[in-house]
């Protein structure tokens, strides 16, 4: 009988040890699953952040392309305007004199308007108008007087 009791105790001990092993395995599996889910959530957060960065980069690239197209169009318009101005033939002396005074007077008036607006504006208005007025006045000055240099071939004009 002693042998049967020893056999039963061994079976009970082995069963209990197996049951404890199963519980520990399930417990470890639970933590492994949690760790796997946490890793998966972190991966998805990373993927989402990466997609957002790619979207921002694409939006910035699109903005840059639009600005380039706008600038290119502005330069094309400037070139066409200069060509049209060059195509105007010389006329009577007084017409040439009025035409010659138009650019300096318009430039001076534009700078005076820009300065008057800047002096009359508050701080917020100054920051808004300064860039625009300075751009317009500088562009006008350089554009209107930039083509006044000597013509190709050494001719200096009438």
TrEMBL record:
It comes from the Bacteria. Keywords: Membrane, Transmembrane, Transmembrane helix. The chain crosses the membrane at residues 6-31. This is DUF2937 family protein. It comes from Henriciella pelagia.
């Amino acid at each position: 009988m002693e042998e049967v009791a020893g056999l039963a105790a061994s079976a009970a001990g082995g069963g209990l040890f197996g049951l404890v092993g199963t519980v520990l395995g399930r417990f470890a599996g639970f933590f492994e699953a949690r760790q796997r889910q946490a890793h998966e959530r972190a991966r998805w957060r990373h993927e989402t952040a990466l997609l957002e960065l790619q979207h921002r980069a694409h939006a910035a690239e699109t903005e840059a392309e639009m600005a380039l197209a706008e600038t290119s169009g502005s330069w094309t318009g400037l070139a066409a305007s200069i060509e049209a101005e060059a195509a105007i033939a010389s006329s009577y002396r007084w017409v040439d004199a009025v035409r010659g005074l138009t650019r300096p007077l318009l430039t001076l008036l534009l700078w005076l308007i820009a300065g008057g607006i800047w002096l009359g504006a508050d701080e917020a208005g100054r920051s808004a108008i300064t860039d625009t007025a300075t751009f317009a006045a500088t562009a006008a000055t350089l554009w209107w007087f930039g083509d006044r240099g000597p013509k190709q071939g050494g001719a200096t004009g009438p």
